[in-house]
Amino acid sequence: MNVTLRVWRQRNAEAPGRFETYEAKDINPNMSFLEMLDVVNEDLTRRGQGPIAFDHDCREGICGMCSCVINGEPHGPEYKVATCQTYMRSFHDGETITVEPFRSRAFPLIKDLVVNRSAFDRIIQAGGFVSVSTGSAPDGNAIPVPKQNADLAMDAAACIGCGACVAACKNASAMLFVAAKVSHLNLLPQGRPEKEKRVLAMVEQMDEEGFGACTVTGSCEAVCPKGIGLSFIAKMNRDYFGALLKMGRGRPATVET
Amino acid sequence: MKLDAKIPAGPLAQKWDKHKASIKLVNPSNKRKYEVIVVGTGLAGASAASSMAELGYVVKSFCIQDSPRRAHSVAAQGGINAAKNYQNDGDSVYRLFYDTIKGGDFRSREANVHRLAEVSVNIIDQCVAQGVPFAREYSGYLANRSFGGAQVSRTFYARGQTGQQLLLGAYQALMRQVGLGQVTLVPRTEMLELVVVNGHAKGIVVRDMVTGRISSHSADAVVLASGGYGNAYYLSTYGRGSNATAIWRAYKKGALFANPCFTQIHPTCIPVTGDYQSKLTLMSESLRNDGRVWVPKKKGDKRSPSEIPEDERDYYLERKYPSYGNLAPRDISSRAAKQVCDEGRGVGESGLGVYLDFSDAIQRLGRAKIEERYGNLFDMYHEITHENAYKSPMRIFPAIHYTMGGLWVDYNLMSNLPGLYVLGEANFSDHGANRLGASALMQGLADGYFVLPYTIGDYLASQKPGSRPKPDAAEFKQAEQETSERIQKLLAIRGKKTITEFHKQLGRILWEHCGMTRSEKSLKEALAQIPPLREEFWKNVNVPGEGEELNQSLERAGRVADYLELAELIVYDALMRDESCGCHFREEHKTEDGECQRNDEQYAYVAAWEFTGVGKTPTLNKEPLVYEEVHLAQRSYK
User: Fold this and answer.
1) Interface predicted TM-score (ipTM)
2) Angle at B175 between CA B173 and CA B178, to 5 degrees
């Protein structure tokens, strides 16, 4: 099959960007979308032009590195997959495919399709952990965890931190990401002692990073490669208001739990 | 060179406890005066960095990804072993130790492996406390499943995403320390040189992958946890970014490289479909708990699997290894698959594939149960192949997956270069000639959480606080200059062939001549082909772009340049080891029924290679493997 690509090219954060058009010829429908980009890049290299920069690593949908908006949709047309798990059979012969980076003020562009998502790391740093130091843990079976809680925590923990939820949201809200992390830990007995502190700190950091507010449009859930549901946002809101009532607003580091 | 593994004296089961009690400690108030560099943020790197920071050391953590959470440990699927014996099925520290030694075909170090089995139980406790959502029974207690090479059920798991969940646990611990100011995180940064001052590893030179800036970082000790080197083979289950550069630079600065030819080929991967393919995807070994591996009995049988009646199928693993069946270790299962395909009984378009069939399990347990256990793997298979594995069997074929070889380390995980520690897949110590499933996660976390935090103190206590060199010392300036020159050289070639063309060509040489089976003839052929390819690379590669920008081609070029040297070392090692053991199957040495024929008299040693110059024969150093507890036996899974 042959496709035409319109790809966002931008040398760096300061330089102006624009769409460039490339022809991808004799593409095997069983190629992944990124393998198709590899082929285009090989061709660009041979012709002495700069290859397209894009983030990728595991190429099996788990590392969360790949981050393309394909025809207006983060991670492309298929449901519950990352860009790297999108295959060319999802497109038709002769189609024009538009490829853009994940856009959000909180994800500044680095080059072409590569953006900086370290805001997510800073949100985790604010409270997305259990404060347990190595060596102080009791036996793994000392605290039973009801299977349904463990399963629900796992549903949330499946988040790969790719940022598609932000890219899809008209407000560039990071609520789904933060809700997944908060819920994962708050659902487990090990995460309970820091429950309030965690949700307050992470939400505050999320706001500081410049992500927008959530208006529950559900576009995040629709593009999430791991199918993380909106219900976690409801759960986080509940945890958040509970924590507000208990501890009041403010930097939770200064608040005793 | 005389190699001292520093294995403590005394009975095997007491070595680690005695050692911990006798090594030097650093006074708590002095710990903050020491700085440690950690390269890599996978399970080993993240757990080491966070645990050292908790102790009070000042840590700098480097990774090539945009976030530490993306290191390739994230992709491990099946599980992590621990000798908890929660299933009451006869497991013990000794049994995990013995399975691992035997699985490695008696080419690993007894004391290290025993320690690994001992701390395995603490790892599970630690991870549970961090909030890793392991699978649980309805009682609320932890669930287990079985993995290859073991007859007990000791594998803990979090659906098919165990690596991801364990890594998130370690990453969270790391981020907590970043928040406390104890760890400085340096993402999107690649180590390009190790700096050795007065014979001790004291820092690294790195390239900022966004701006291209080269800079120096000094420390009191350097920890490499940068993973394995399987991407030398081009197609593998590794992440595309996984590379050997950090350990290769250390090797060229004097660190010994041990058992480089021990490369694991995983039996259950999705077969190659075309030349465009960029990587191979693993289907977790846990699938072999319930899936049955088979091929048609008849050669060239092109019927669809459902049309082949039961008595015309050859469940060859169950036939050849009745007691372990489909759970035979990886090396054995991979070779058995190759053998049936060589006989012309392979399936799929290319004939390079075997079936992994779940129809029996679905009939026995129901589809819902199978979905719960392996749902995400079946989904993944469907995405890639567009086939429904609930209805027709998966097709699988072996692929490069892990490297047991790596930098040589002593019992303290320190290389022969004082101050240089090597953890996880980057070192060589625990898996011998074949790693068992669910043991990589165990080793990475054991090294990072429970070994290095103790042993690094022994070295640091011997270094005067504040004595580390400044990053503008002459040794750093020189390393920076060498790094910049190498980059300029790569960019100046502007040849005709792309980096990928060279990498693919090298991969083909290694896969064909030093893959699932090797022989003197094939290895000599590889040795003849690699040097000219390397020469051509340096004359004719096309690396577009500039050094002072985000340049993914330049990153790859540097890594492929290293693979072109490393490949030769892999082959030297395979040629020298004139025996078959584990993954290293020399055609010349097989038993009557086609299994590995070890030669313990001549080859019961660790081959630790010393760099002598590019294209020159490296020097072989031997560390004899002394077995105090285990009797060396012919490995049998029949």
Assistant:
1) 0.97
2) 120
